[in-house]
Amino acid sequence: MTTLSCGVLSGPICCPAPSSARGVRGAAGSSGASKRSGGRPGNGEREPSSFLSASSASASASDSSTSSSSSGSDITASCSSSGVFRGRFGARASPSALSGAAGRVGRGWTGATFGISRAICPLRCMAPTPGTGAAFTNGRPAAGSSQVDLTSVLSVDTRYKTETHAAASAGEQVVEETQVLFEANEEFRKNALVSSTEKYEEMYKQSVEDPDTFWSEIASQFHWEKKWDVTDGKVHTENFDVRKGPIKVEWFKGGKTNICYNALDRHVEAGRANDVAMFWEGNEPGYDSSVTFGNLLDLVSQVSNYLRSVGVKKGDAVVIYMPMLVELPVAMLACARIGAIHSVVFAGFSADSLAQRISDCKPKVVLTANGVMRGTKFINLKTIVDDALKQAKQEGYTVETSVVFANEVATKKEETAWVEGRDIWWQDVIPSQSTKSEVEWVDAEDPLFLLYTSGSTGKPKGVLHSTGGYMVYTATTFKHAFDYRPGEVYWCTADCGWITGHSYLTYGPLLNGATVVNFEGVPTYPDAGRCWEIVDKYNVNIFYTAPTAIRALMREGDKPVKKHLRKSLRVLGSVGEPINPAAWKWYYEVVGDSRCPISDTWWQTETGGFMITPMPGGWPLKPGSATFPFFGVQPAIVDENGKELHGECSGYLCVKASWPSTFRTLFGDHPRYETTYFAPFKGFYFSGDGCHRDKDGYYWLTGRVDDVINVSGHRIGSAEVESALVHHPLCAEAAVVGYDHEVKGQGIYAFVTLVEGVEYSDKLRKDLIAKVRSQIGPFAAPDIIHWAPGLPKTRSGKIMRRILRKIAASQIDELGDVSTLADPGVVEQLIELRDK
Ligand code: 6R9
C-alpha cells in the first residue's frame, strides 16, 4: 500500500507577507490602489487559492532584473524583426531588453524564415483582405467603425449583447514591440515529435481536410471494448450553425470505452505496474509520497467499489470538494471507472458556491477532506461542506453521503464537526474495499464530467464533457504540445478544481503513461525557491504553470531560482491568460536557462484541450503568442458582424468546426449553450476572447471581450461579483470591471452605490469584500471598492461599463463620448471619488 498524505504537521511555519498594493499596474492605477490597500483582503493572510493563484504570493523586489543568460542554449533566439505586439501589458520592450537573447544567436532572423512561418500558417490566405479588417486597427475598432450589432443574436444575455464591443474597444493598449523569435536548436528539433514546419503543415492539413481519418487513426491507439460506428466514412457528426438547427457534436459514437481503463489498467497490463504514476508533494517540505500505476489502480478501484456500494451508478453525479491530495485525481478516476459524472469544485470556493453547484447537479455523494494547509493558512473544508449541504437541503436537495478524508497533516479528526448518518471517514470505508473493480464500458458520447465556469451572467455554467473525444484529444494535445517522451516527469501546478487539473494533471498525462507531480502547496512556501526545489527533487522535465505564478516568482528575483539546478527541465508551459513578454523572457532565460521552449497554450474549460499552442521544436516562438492551432482546430477571427477576417487582423476569436473534446452542452441548459457560444457569430463557436493574427500568421490572444474577468487565470464573471455585493443589505447597486494587475493579470474593481443615507466607510468596504469572499470564494474578492453615488447609465438604464473600465484604468482622457448618458455629471463625480 502507499503511504498517502499522512504524517503530522510540525514546527512553526512562517509566511511571507502578501503583495502590497504596488501590485497594481498602470500609472495612475497604482496610486489609486495603494490608497485603497486597506480594502484588500486581510494583511498577512494567504488566500486559500490554487497554486495558479500566485497573486497572494509574497513580493518584495519590483521588477526582476533578468540576468543575461548562460551559454549552452538548446533553443536559440533569433534577431528581431519589427512588428506589432498586442499584449495586455502593453509595456514597451525595447529592443535592448530582448537583445541578450538575440545576441546569443549569431544568426539573423531573416525574411526567409518568415517565409517558412508564413508557409506553415494553416490559414494560408495571409494576404490581408482589403476592407475586411477595416473595423479594427490592431485590435481596436477604427475610428468611425460601426458598433457591434449583436441585437440580432438569439436571446443572448442582455448585458453581453450591449457590452461586447465596448469591452473589445476598451481592450488592450497597442504598442510597437520588437518581435524576437526563439527557435529550438538543431538537436531539439531533430528529436521533436513535430520536428519541422513541413511536418506540422502536412499533419494539420490532413487533420482539417479529413478529420475522421486523422482522429480515427489516433483513437485506435486506445482501448475500445467496442469500436465506434462509422457512417459514410465519418466518425463524427456536428452542427455548429444555429440557423441549421440545434447545435450538436458527437465523436466516435457507438464506441465503448473507459478513460480510467485507458489511463491506468492499460499501462499496468503493459507491465508498468511498478512505474511511478504520481509523485505527491505536500504543502510542508518533507511530506511526500509516490504512487505507482499499480497503486493508483488499486486506490481507484477501492473508491469506485465504495461508490457502487452506496448506490452510485452510471450517469449519477458525484461532487468532489478536495484539496490536492492524491485522493483527488483518484476520486475523479474512480467516478470515470463506473461511468459516474464527476463535478470537481475547487476547494477555495465558498459554501454558497458549493451549495449552488450541489443543488444544480444533485450528487448522491460528496467526497471531501476535513481540512488542508495552504502555505501557513489552514482551511476548514469540512465546515464549508457542512454549510453547503445545509443550504442545499434548504433549497430542496439532500445529499445522503459525505465521505471525509481525514487529512491529519492539517487537522485532527476529533476537532472535525460531524453529522451522524451522513458523514463517514474515507479511511473507515475505502481501504477495506476490494482492489478489483469491474470497468463500466461507456459510450464515447456518455458524459465524463461537469465543471462549472463563470459566464457573463450571475449563474455559473456547468460545462459538460463526454468521454471518447475528450480522451483522444487531451492525450494527443498533451503529447504534442509538450513534446512528451516516455519516461519523462511532468509537473502541472494547476489544481484539479480547474479544467487544467482535469485535462493536464490527470487525464492527458496519465493516458500517456507519464509520471505526474501533484503539489498540494503554494509556490512561495516556505520560500520562493520551492518550485525549483521540487523540480530538482523529482527531476521534472516538463513544467506547466500560469503567468500569474511566473510573475509572482519573478518579483522575488533570480536568486531563489538559481539556487537550484533545474538541469532536468526540457519544456516549459504557460496557461490561463496572455503571458506578457517580460514574464515570458524571465521564464525562458532564468527558469529555463534559455534552453527550454515555452508552450503558451490557449484553451478553455469549454474546449477541454489545447486549441492554439506551440509544438516545441516545430516552429520558432514569439514571446506572448500562442502561435498556431493544434491539429484539427480551425480558428477564425471575425469582425463585429461575424464576417471572417483574413491575413493580419484583429477581432473576435471563433472556431469553425468541432474538435473531439468540444464540450457537448451546458448541464441542464442546452439553450444557454447555443445562445452563449453559437448565436453571437452564426456558424462559429465563439470563445469570448479577442485575438490578433500577425503578418506571419501567429495568434496573439488579447483577453476576454465579455464581462468575464481573468484573475490569476481564474475566470470570474463580473455579474457574479455584483450579485454577491448587492447581497449586502447596505449595497444598493454594484458594477464590476477588470483592470490590469501586475501579478494577477487582472484585478477586480467594484463600483458600489450604497443605499440612501448610509455613510461610506472603511468598515463597510471590508464588509463588502467579506461578502464576496463568503458568497463566491476568497479569490473573487474585489481589489478595489470605488464608492459611486451614481453609475454612468444610458437613458434606457444600461450601465456603460466602457466608461467604468476607463476610470478603473485611470484613462480619464479616453472616456469617449459621454453625451448619451442619462446624467453625464456622474462621470465627473466618479473621477473625483477615485482615490477616496
Ligand atoms: C485553460 C483555462 C479560459 C480563458 C480563455 C482566455 C484565457 C487561457 C490562455 C488564455 C491567453 C493563453 N486563457 N489560456 N489567454 N493565452 N495561453 O484557462 O481555462 O479557466 O476556462 O479560462 O482563459 O481568456 O478564454 P478557463
Automatic annotation (TrEMBL):
MF terms in GO: acetate-CoA ligase activity; AMP binding; ATP binding
Low complexity composition bias: which ranges? Answer: 19-36, 49-75
Lineage: superkingdom: Eukaryota
Q: Keywords for this entry?
A: ATP-binding, Ligase, Nucleotide-binding
Location of region: Disordered = 16-75
Alphabetically, which GO biological process terms does the record hold?
Answer: acetyl-CoA biosynthetic process; acetyl-CoA biosynthetic process from acetate
Q: Which InterPro entries match?
A: Ac_CoA_lig, ACAS_N, AMP-bd_C, AMP-bd_C_sf, AMP-binding_CS, AMP-dep_synth/lig_dom, ANL_N_sf
Q: Where is the AMP-dependent synthetase/ligase domain?
A: 271-657
| SUPFAM superfamilies membership | Acetyl-CoA synthetase-like
Domain AMP-binding enzyme C-terminal: residue ranges? 720-798
| Family stated for the protein in its record | Belongs to the ATP-dependent AMP-binding enzyme family.
What's the name of the protein? acetate--CoA ligase
Give the originating organism.
Marchantia polymorpha
Upper taxonomic lineage: Eukaryota, Viridiplantae, Streptophyta, Embryophyta, Marchantiophyta
